[in-house]
Write a structure and sequence with these properties.
The protein is of the alpha+beta class and 378 residues long. It folds into 3 domains: 2-106, Arc Repressor Mutant, subunit A, CATH 1.10.10.10; 115-237, 2-Layer Sandwich (Endonuclease, Chain A), CATH 3.30.870.10; 241-375, Endonuclease Chain A (Endonuclease, Chain A), CATH 3.30.870. Helices cover 50% and strands 24% of the residues. Strands 3-9-8-7-4-5-6 form a 7-stranded mixed β-sheet, with helices on both faces. Helix 7 packs across helix 8 and helix 10 runs parallel beside helix 12 (278-290). The protein is rod-shaped. The relative contact order is 0.07.
């Protein structure tokens, strides 16, 4: 008894999937049993109103589950072969297949937002920064390196050693005077920060060097690409400002760090030489000679400057010096390579140098230099 009941329930559920109501299923089953019946007879057998029975018959006719014949001017309805259900399914399948390409083209995959993880404590930071190295791509670093070193201590050295061993190059934008192997460093003049941002591949890690350091790791191509663009805009900026003695040395070293057809400058003096120092000057000349850069400079013609640069002229090859009055040279030391121009202002209370990559500015000052060179004396 229970088995028959289950079969009936299953049968009704299947027929409902064709869009039939319980009353329509009852009518369809009655048609199968009775072979041929009029609407009135069907209404009595199903115990329903004749009008409602007609409506339900129309539904079955429309689905192809029933048809009729006419005898003695009366319509006799009968169910079609149950296998018609399979034909209906096949027809529906073909209809769906015909519109499937159009439907699939409308099914735009939802864009996933960035995946974000938070790491806390030094162990958490180690985990996050190890993920960077697994990318095995160039790492862009913006912010404090000293805070990184102070907070992570021996792990800072371990991380850098691994990076160097894996030959992963780094570019660093920082306010700090640092030297790191297999890394390019560019100084910023922004305020010091306790935040360092690492970007590589599709990963950005923002670290806050508090008492308990925290790292926010964002995995997203869009976020990483935006961060790379921001970093590169800073890196490739046309004008930079360096301050202090280390800033002066850094700017002058940039002049000779790349090959150039010539280095030309005016406004040099004994006072400026005392700021950057003889030891640095020797290192600068060694780099200049290594990169085969001939040099012409114009110094102030005061006694101290004359004695100092005449001696330097003797000591170093491809280093030509002439002298001109301070009034004609002006209150700045300006030096140019093929690609950059460095300006040191004597009038600044704080030591400051301005570096520019502007080609028009370089060309204008080169022309001005040639005019001054003609007026200067050996």
């Amino acid at each position: 008894m229970s088995t028959n009941k289950n079969k009936n329930v299953q049968k009704e559920q299947v027929l409902q999937s064709f869009g039939l109501t319980e009353a329509e299923i009852k009518l369809y089953i009655e048609l199968l049993k009775s072979q041929e019946s009029t609407a009135s007879t069907l209404a009595k057998k199903t115990n329903t109103n004749r009008t409602f029975t007609y409506d339900r018959i129309k539904k079955l006719l429309g689905l192809g589950l029933a048809n009729y014949i006419i005898k003695d001017n009366k319509k006799y309805f009968k169910a079609t072969e149950p296998r018609q259900l399979l034909s209906i399914l096949k027809e529906r399948e073909e209809q769906v297949e015909s519109i499937l390409p159009e439907l699939e083209s409308l099914n735009i995959e939802e864009k996933k937002g960035p995946e974000i993880e938070v790491f806390s404590s030094k162990n958490g930071i180690r985990t996050a920064l190890n993920i960077l190295l697994k990318q095995e791509k160039e790492i862009l670093i913006h912010g404090s390196i000293k805070k990184f070193q102070e907070s992570m201590q021996e792990y800072y050295e371990i991380w850098n050693t691994r990076r160097i061993k894996q030959k992963i190059h780094a570019k660093i934008l920082t306010t700090e005077e640092i030297t790191i192997e297999n890394a390019e460093i560019d100084l910023l003049t922004e305020e010091e920060s306790s935040i360092t941002t690492f970007t590589t591949g599709n990963i950005v890690i923002i670290t806050v060097w508090s008492d308990i350091p925290i790292a926010l790791m964002i995995e997203s191509n869009d976020v990483a690409n935006n961060n790379k663009n921001f970093f590169n805009n800073l890196w490739n900026r046309e004008i930079k400002i360096y301050t202090g003695i280390t800033g002066i040395r850094r700017a002058w070293m940039e002049l000779v760090s790349q090959q150039s057809s010539e280095l030309a400058g005016y406004g040099f003096s004994w006072n400026l030489a005392q700021i950057y120092g003889r030891e640095f000057s020797n290192q600068w000349h060694q780099t200049r000679i290594k990169n085969k850069i001939p040099t012409r400079i114009i110094s102030y013609d005061d006694n101290n400057s004359t004695k100092y640069f005449q001696q330097r002229n003797i000591e170093w090859e491809n280093f030509n010096i002439q002298f001109l009055s301070k009034d004609l040279c002006g209150p700045a030391c300006i030096t140019m390579s093929d690609k950059i121009i460095v300006e040191f202002l004597y009038t600044e209370k704080n030591l400051k140098v301005i570096i520019s990559k502007n080609k028009e500015m370089i060309n204008i000052h080169k022309k001005h230099f040639e005019n001054l060179w003609k007026k200067s004396t050996k």
